[in-house]
Amino acid sequence: MTSPFTSLSPPAIDAIAGGKPLALFLDFDGTLVELAATPDGIEVESGLFDRLHALFDRLDGKLALISGRALDNLEMHLGSMRIWRAGSHGSDCRDPAGAAMGSAAQALPPAAIAELMAYADRAGIDYEAKQHGGALHFRAHPDAEGGALAFAETLSAEHGLAVKAGKAVVEVVRPGADKGTAVRAFMARPEFAGACPVFIGDDVTDEDGFAAAQELGGHAIIVGTRGDTRAEYRLPGVKEVHEWLNL
Ligand SMILES: O=P(O)(O)OC[C@H]1O[C@H](O[C@H]2O[C@H](CO)[C@@H](O)[C@H](O)[C@H]2O)[C@H](O)[C@@H](O)[C@@H]1O
């Protein structure tokens, strides 16, 4: 960790890349849209889709969304995109035309899905079915956090899976991918050659993206109040992210 409690505002978007072309990697929930009580309860500002595509054009195509959501879910909320994107915490990377990059992401084993659903039922918490994972949401039941985390750890160990913990959520996924592997995959493409990567995100899973951007000579911007971060810069919330991006 370089700066666990940074409060430093980032330089302006036109200056942060220090004269290089800028490559932007954007998280979705808590960064581009405000968090909501449930995954489908988010409100996507009208015009966000068009403004993101205008930003993609302004950056000569060096813009990617990197979300924990599965891409089908992201597109259900945002629309059918023509920008670089990674869903399922970096497992499913696509180019602007929608072509898959790398090996295809896999769904969880059916037995693991069944156990997650049964646990959610027993614990009275929400289960989010995802293309390449399964998530236990406890925003409405904060007291269920410890049990859900312990259950996810045990289940993952039994099935050779991995756990991603986030804001009021714990998710079971296939091992091997994270938001950092997605940043590296995009930055390895000729379209991103010579660019300075900047990752903006709010959650723990964004730290892998922060690390990759910094290791590739770029920067990380954390959104909100989360303290323990390796980001050098901070923006207070979604509104300030939009302002910083000139969206
Ligand atoms: O990486 P992100 O794009 O930030 O996605 C992370 C997770 O976002 C969603 O869950 C979070 O947002 C919900 C809506 O605001 C909120 O109800 C929940 O408590 C948050 O954890 C999404 O449902 C997950 O699948 C994503 O992994």
UniProtKB/TrEMBL annotation:
<comment type="pathway">
    <text>Glycan biosynthesis; trehalose biosynthesis.</text>
</comment>
<dbReference type="Pfam" id="PF02358">
    <property type="entry name" value="Trehalose_PPase"/>
</dbReference>
<dbReference type="InterPro" id="IPR003337">
    <property type="entry name" value="Trehalose_PPase"/>
</dbReference>
<keyword id="KW-0460">Magnesium</keyword>
<dbReference type="GO" id="GO:0004805">
    <property type="term" value="F:trehalose-phosphatase activity"/>
</dbReference>
<dbReference type="InterPro" id="IPR036412">
    <property type="entry name" value="HAD-like_sf"/>
</dbReference>
<keyword id="KW-0479">Metal-binding</keyword>
<dbReference type="InterPro" id="IPR044651">
    <property type="entry name" value="OTSB-like"/>
</dbReference>
<dbReference type="InterPro" id="IPR023214">
    <property type="entry name" value="HAD_sf"/>
</dbReference>
<keyword id="KW-0378">Hydrolase</keyword>
<dbReference type="GO" id="GO:0005992">
    <property type="term" value="P:trehalose biosynthetic process"/>
</dbReference>
<comment type="function">
    <text>Removes the phosphate from trehalose 6-phosphate to produce free trehalose.</text>
</comment>
<comment type="similarity">
    <text>Belongs to the trehalose phosphatase family.</text>
</comment>
<dbReference type="GO" id="GO:0046872">
    <property type="term" value="F:metal ion binding"/>
</dbReference>
<protein>
    <recommendedName>
        <fullName>Trehalose 6-phosphate phosphatase</fullName>
        <ecNumber>3.1.3.12</ecNumber>
    </recommendedName>
</protein>
